[in-house]
Amino acid sequence: MNMTDQAYQDLVTSMERPSPQLRDGLTAFAVGGAICVVGQILRNSFQNGGMNSESAGTWTTITLIFLSALFTGLNWYDRLAKYAGAGTLVPVTGFANSIVSPAMDFKSEGYITGMAAKMFTIAGPVLVFGIGASVLYGLILCLLR
After folding, report:
1. d(CA 90, CA 109)
2. pTM here?
3. Roughly how many angstroms between the first and final C-alpha of the chain, as a whole number?
4. pLDDT at residue 36 above 90?
5. How many Cβ atoms from other residues are within 10 Å of residue 96's Cβ?
6. 19 or 134: which carries more pLDDT confidence?
7. Measuring CA to CA, how many Å separate 8 from each of 1, 18, 42?
8. Angle at alpha carbon of residue 68, lines to 63 and 73, rounded to 5°
9. How far is it, in rounded angstroms, from Cα 60 to Cα 97?
């Protein structure tokens, strides 16, 4: 079948369904908000248990990272992401998922060459940029003081 690029593009355009952007946006907002509500409930629970605000925040972050990693390992996080889209990219939980998910995909290649090597394929550039930016910011701050 010989088609020009334009004819092929016209065919694809005629067959594609319109994207439900409003529904997707509302779903992402609701799921991302629900994750944040869970985080706030955890923080309030830790504070009601006698922790100060800083310790409660730290334990909330640790708990959210653990739950995200656990849910990724159980394949629940991916199912939620298919439904919620960008709503699962709430920074801490999405980052934990981005580290655990490649490790789970490559576990058949072994612990060192599979899981350990692939764990930071997605998160590695983020870590390098974040650490580099914080070092640069610290140096600038030291020079200005």
Report:
1. 30
2. 0.69
3. 70
4. yes
5. 22
6. 134
7. 11, 18, 52
8. 125
9. 16
